[in-house]
Design a protein that fits this description.
There is one protein chain. The protein is α/β, with parallel strands linked by helices. Among the domains are: about 100 residues, Arginyl tRNA synthetase N-terminal domain (Gyrase A, domain 2, 2-Layer Sandwich), CATH 3.30.1360.70; about 80 residues, no CATH class; about 110 residues, Isoleucyl-tRNA Synthetase, Domain 1. Helices cover about 50% and strands about 10% of the residues. The chain contains 21 helices and 14 strands. Helix 5 links the parallel strand 6 and strand 7. The protein is globular and about 90 Å long. Its EC number is 6.1.1.19.
Length: about 600
C-alpha cells in the first residue's frame, strides 16, 4: 500500500481499535490533506462524543500516542517507533500528521519499481456494463453525444485498467416510428444518394427532408406509416432497407469515434432495435405478475416514491394506449438483458442529466420486477449540457447545430496556431496539432464534473496554462525533453529517490496518490477526479522543475539520479493518467 491517505486511514483505524476497542476498527478517521501538515485526521471530535468523553484534545493525544508508540508521552510533537512521521494535536482536536522524508522517498522508489505505478489491481474483478455514446440514427450526433462518448470512454478505460471486465454497450437510437419515413425517403432519393448523405454526417438534413414530406404529402405519409408496420414485423425487404440506412449512419459514427480515439467498435453496438422482439414478452410478463397495470389504456409500472402533481403516482409507461412501445419498454428489456445475459455486477449509464427522472424510474421499476437484484449496482452518470458563449445550447452562429467533424477540424487548426512558433516539419506539426486539438476538446469534457454545464470555448481549452489538456501534454513533453538532453531513457531512471528540497518532497508525496486517484475515479464514476489529480501533479512538477535543476553540471550524482527518477515517475503517472482519460500524448510539443 503506497497511497499516504489509505496508509494513514488504515494505521489510524488500528490505533483507534487498540486504544478504544475493536468496534472502532472501521471508524472513518477522516484523513484529509492539510494546510499545516501533510494530512490531518479529524476523527477525535466525533469520537469524543461516541466515547462519552469531554475533551477531544485529550482523545486526540491518546490516538497520536497509540499511533506512534510515543517515545515520550505528553509531548506536543508526538513521534515513536511505530510510525514514520510526527503527529501534533491542534485546534479543537485535529491530528496534524507529517510524514518522514525517508518514508516518502522509500515509497516513491517502490512505486517507481511497481509496473502498475501504485494502482491496485482488483482481486475480485467485476463485470461492468457501460452504456455510453448512444447517438440517435434519425438525428444529428451533437456535442452532447460527444460528451457522453468521451466521459464513457474514460470510465471504460479506468475500469479495464484496474482489472474489471468491461462490456461496452452503444445503445444507438436505431428503432421506432421515425424509421418509417426515413426508409421511404431512402426509396425516394435512391440508395446511393441516401448512403452518401448519411456517411457525410448529414443525418439531420436527411431527417428534415423526410419530415417535410411526412407533414405535407399525404401519399408519403401513408407509405411511411405502412412502413412502420412492416418494420415492427421485421419484414425482410424493410429490414434490408433499414440495414442500408443504419450501416451508412454507423460508418459516420465510426468516423467520429476514430477521429476521437474512442475505443467503441461495431461489436459494441447494441441499439434499441436489438430488443424489438423482446418487447411484447416484457410487457406480458410484467402485466401477468402484477408489476405493471393498465391505466387509461396504457400499461404502466408505478414505482413507489414517484409522484407528480397533487401527489398522483407517476407512471413509467411501457406500452402506450395505442399498443406502441417506447423508450421505457426498450430500457426495461435492456436492463434485464444486461443483468441476466451479460451478468453485470454494475451498470453505468452515461447519459444526459435531462434523463434523470427516466433513469431513476427505470431502476426502481426494474428493482420491482426483480430484474435488477440488490447486488447489482446501477447508476446514472448524469452528463451536463455543453453551452455556447451565449449560455444557450451550443449552436453555430446561424443557429444550426454543429457538425462534429467540422468542430474537430477547427480544433486541429486552432491547435496548430498554438504551436506555430515551434520548429517542426509539416507532418510532425500536423500530428502534434491533432493530438493537442483532440486532447483539448476531450479534456474540457473530463476536467469538470460530469453533471455540470460548461461553456464550449476553444481559447480556454487550448490554453497552455491552467487545468487544460495542452498544459498536461506540455508537461509530459517537457519531461521527455529532459531525458533526451540527458541521454537516458525515462525507464532507466530507477532512483533511489532522496528528498532534500521541499519541491521534491511535495512532488513525491503527490505522485504516491496516483493509485488512490484511479480507484476513486472508478468507484465514483468521476473522471474529473483523475483530471484534478493529474493537474495537481503537473503543477507540483512545474514548481519542482523551476527549483530543482536536474542536468546542470553542479548537481551531484545522487541528487541527479533522484531527480531523474522523480521526472520519470511523473512522466509515467501523467502519461498513464492521460491515457486513462483517452487524451493523446504527443512526444514533443
Ligand atoms: N439515444 C439516447 C439519447 O440520445 C441515449 C440512450 C441512452 N441509453 C439508454 N439505455 N437509455 O438521448
Amino acid at each position: 500500500m503506497t497511497d499516504p491517505q489509505l496508509f494513514l486511514t488504515e494505521r489510524v483505524q488500528q490505533a483507534l481499535a487498540a486504544a478504544f476497542g475493536p468496534e472502532f476498527s472501521d471508524a472513518d478517521p477522516l484523513i484529509r490533506p492539510s494546510q499545516f501538515a501533510d494530512y490531518q485526521a479529524n476523527v477525535a471530535m466525533s469520537l469524543t462524543k461516541r466515547l462519552g468523553r469531554k475533551n477531544p484534545r485529550e482523545v486526540a493525544q491518546e490516538i497520536a500516542e497509540r499511533l506512534t508508540g510515543a517515545a515520550s508521552p505528553g509531548a506536543a510533537k508526538v513521534s515513536g517507533p511505530d510510525f514514520p512521521g510526527t503527529v501534533e494535536v491542534s485546534g479543537p482536536g485535529f491530528l496534524n500528521i507529517t510524514l518522514d522524508d525517508a518514508w516518502i522517498a522509500g515509497q516513491a522508489t517502490d512505486v517507481l519499481a511497481d509496473p502498475h505505478t501504485g494502482v491496485v489491481m482488483t482481486d475480485s474483478p467485476q463485470t461492468v456494463v457501460v452504456d455510453y455514446s448512444a447517438p440517435n440514427a434519425a438525428k444529428e450526433m451533437h456535442v452532447g453525444h460527444l460528451r457522453t462518448t468521451i466521459v464513457g470512454d474514460a470510465l471504460v478505460r479506468v475500469h479495464e485498467h484496474v482489472g474489471n471486465k468491461v462490456v461496452r454497450q452503444n445503445h444507438l437510437g436505431d428503432w421506432g416510428t421515425p424509421f418509417g419515413m426515413l426508409i421511404e425517403h431512402l426509396l425516394d432519393i435512391g440508395e446511393e444518394a441516401a448512403v452518401a448523405q448519411l456517411e457525410a454526417g448529414e443525418g439531420n438534413e436527411y431527417y428534415q427532408a423526410a419530415r417535410v414530406k411526412f407533414d405535407s404529402d399525404p401519399e408519403f405519409n401513408k407509405r411511411a406509416r405502412a412502413r412502420v408496420v412492416t418494420l415492427q414485423a421485421e419484414e425482410p425487404e424493410t429490414m434490408r432497407l433499414w440495414h442500408i440506412f443504419m450501416n451508412a449512419t454507423v460508418r459516420y459514427f465510426n468516423k467520429v469515434y476514430t477521429r476521437l480515439g474512442v475505443t467503441l467498435t461495431d461489436d459494441d453496438i447494441a441499439g434499441e432495435s436489438m430488443y424489438n422482439a423482446a418487447l411484447p414478452q416484457v410487457c406480458d410478463e410484467l402485466q401477468e405478475r402484477g408489476i405493471a397495470v393498465i391505466s387509461d389504456g396504457a400499461l404502466c409500472v408505478f414505482p413507489p416514491g414517484f409522484t407528480g402533481r397533487e401527489d398522483q403516482p407517476l407512471p413509467f409507461m411501457i406500452r402506450k394506449s395505442d399498443g406502441g412501445y417506447g423508450y421505457a419498454t426498450t430500457d426495461m428489456a435492456t436492463i434485464r438483458y444486461r443483468v441476466q445475459d451479460l451478468k453485470a455486477d454494475r451498470i453505468i449509464y452515461v447519459i444526459g442529466a435531462t434523463q434523470a427522472l427516466h433513469m431513476s424510474m427505470l431502476f426502481a421499476s426494474a428493482r420491482m420486477a426483480g430484474w435488477l437484484p440488490e447486488h447489482v449496482r446501477a447508476e446514472h452518470v448524469q452528463i451536463g449540457s455543453v453551452l455556447g458563449s451565449d449560455g444557450k445550447m451550443f449552436k453555430t452562429r446561424s443557429g444550426k447545430s454543429i457538425k462534429l467533424l467540422e468542430l474537430l477540424d477547427e480544433a486541429d487548426v486552432r491547435a496548430a496556431a498554438v504551436i506555430a512558433e515551434r520548429e517542426y516539419d509539416d507532418a510532425a506539426r500536423a500530428e502534434i496539432a491533432h493530438a493537442v486539438g483532440m486532447g483539448a476538446v476531450k479534456y474540457a469534457d473530463l476536467s469538470v464534473s460530469h453533471d455540470s454545464e460548461y461553456v464550449f470555448d476553444f481559447d480556454r481549452m487550448l490554453a497552455l496554462t491552467g487545468n487544460t489538456g495542452p498544459y498536461l501534454q506540455y508537461a509530459t513533453a517537457r519531461i521527455r525533453s529532459i531525458f533526451r538532453k540527458g541521454g537516458v531513457g525515462p525507464s532507466q531512471a530507477a532512483g533511489p529517490v532522496v528528498l532534500r528540497h521541499p519541491a521534491e518532497r511535495a512532488l513525491a508525496l503527490r505522485l504516491l496518490g496516483f493509485g488512490a486517484a484511479v480507484a476513486e475515479t472508478a468507484e465514483d464514476s468521476a473522471p474529473h477526479r483523475l483530471a484534478a489529480f493529474l493537474f495537481d501533479t503537473a503543477s507540483a512538477f512545474t514548481t519542482f522543475y523551476e527549483n530543482c535543476p536536474v542536468l546542470r553540471a553542479d548537481v551531484e550524482e545522487e541528487t541527479r539520479a533522484s531527480r531523474l527518477a522523480l521526472c520519470g515517475l511523473t512522466l509515467r503517472v501523467l502519461e498513464t493518467g492521460l491515457d486513462l482519460l483517452g487524451v493523446p500524448v504527443p512526444e514533443r510539443m
